[in-house]
Hints:
Elements: H1 11-30, E1 34-35, E2 41-42, E3 55-59, E4 67-72, H2 77-85, E5 91-98, E6 110-119, H3 123-138, E7 144-147, H4 148-156, H5 165-174, H6 178-181, H7 187-199, E8 210-213, E9 235-240, E10 243-250, H8 255-271, H9 281-290, E11 294-300, H10 301-308
Parallel strand pairs: 1-5, 7-8
Antiparallel strand pairs: 2-4, 3-4, 5-6, 6-11, 8-9, 9-10, 10-11
Amino acid sequence: MKNNWKPSASIKDLIKRAEIINNIRLFFLEKKILEVETPLLSQSTVTDINLTPFETNYFFSEDNTNKLKLWLITSPEYHMKRLLAAKSGPIYQICRSFRNKEHGKHHNPEFTMLEWYQISYSMKEFIDQIDLFFQKILKSKQSKKISYQEVFIKYLNIDPFSTNVAELYKISKKFNLQHLTCSEKNLHILIEILFTLVVEPLLGQENQPIFIYHFPIEQASLAAKNHKDNRFAERFEIFFKGMEIGNGFYELTNYLENKKRLINDNKSRKKMNLPIRKIDDNFLNAIKHGLPVCSGVAIGIDRLIMIALKKKSIDEVISFSFDRC
């Protein structure tokens, strides 16, 4: 279309976006947390079954015969943990990240992420720090905090840690989701579907974020296991206005357990007929060298700005939407 040259966000809102990002940097400057930059191109990518990265090639020769496969990062996590292992101390980064097959009202294939790591912080201590961050940047009220188990009991009247497939089928039918769940036999996938489609839209609707913590260990990713109850992962997600805006961990520091989880990801990929991903040896070697006790979070800057500016679509807060890039 002839007007597609124009930005998808207004210049007025882009100025406000720049002010918000500047305030984020001032927040970290005041706390003496180092801003870092890491590569957007990587020789390895993630094994996560839920992420589809973009791939490209670097050509060493004019005839294109000698080449190296590269990936655009889905997040700066692996590189930043390598910095932590090199004794960087607490760090943060505001950078572009890229995820294929993700486009919609809350998604753009290229987006801006804030990744932040705090040394020697427990999950609870870090959640309190992030809460202060939101109060500063979004002028929000003090956040609510509720466990994954409690939020299921509150909204669906079931305990996700003691439920069964039959009960989940019954609930999915109540919410007209049987077309998505009727052929699914995996208990944990059914729980995830109900959380995403039924619970998430109800979260953080007041002027305060809500932290959901102690996700099931099956959804741990690279979060540590809770030392009191091995059903729980030290993982949390942050929701505001029915939208996920952050995902965080009390980080898994054990080398063998990190390696095991990446290998298990690839086993799951094989079962799902997804491509097997080469495990990032640089990342694992950094963990083996010694990742300090820390907590980390990834926050979607574009979604944060959507909330700050009261916008309904990510296109309204980025210069050029996917259809205009």
